[in-house]
Amino acid sequence: LAAVADVLVRDVPLGLRRRVAFASALSHSPLVLVLDEPTSGVDALARAELWDTIREQSSAGVGVLVTTHYMQEAQQCDRLLLMADGRLVAEGSEADVVGGTTALAVRSDDWSAAFDALDAAGELVLLSGRSIRVADGDPSVVSRVLAEAGIGAAVERVPATIEERMAVLARGAR
Hints:
The protein is of the alpha+beta class. It contains 7 helices and 8 strands, in the order αβαβαββαβαββαβα. The protein has helices at 14-26, 44-59, 71-74, 94-98, 111-120, 139-148, 162-173, and strands spanning 32-36, 63-67, 80-84, 87-92, 102-107, 125-128, 131-135, 154-159. It has a 4-stranded antiparallel β-sheet. A two-stranded parallel sheet has the order 1-2. α2 links the parallel β1 (32-36) and β2. It starts with 13 loop residues before the first helix and ends with a helix.
């Protein structure tokens, strides 16, 4: 922040504004931090540094409440409260929330067509890069959908991620 010390906060990029706000929040040694989407607009390195600081504050006894829609960030929290459509749908540690939920890892040379076929069939399909995963899917149904579409693929049951569990819970909340 030293590089922009003489610039009005309104004139610095969003990521730096977030860092200024966080520094301001810490300046009076609070007992509780309430952080609403604290890393929105922050680059990857600054995001990691911010989470280090959040953990330091928590370890020092500061109560921390973080809202985020980034499930990877939620994984950094000790206790989660997941909401969908304004309702609480799960709470506890990441392990408690995910529980025994599984997903299907789908490997195909034609990943785009596989994604489209599964999505059109109403499967809860997620894409991370070119990795296709079907949250809480039935392997026989997924294999059948892909075969009917003429798409060769390997389907394997794997443990679900928190993002996949959230997608399952959100679908059920509707």
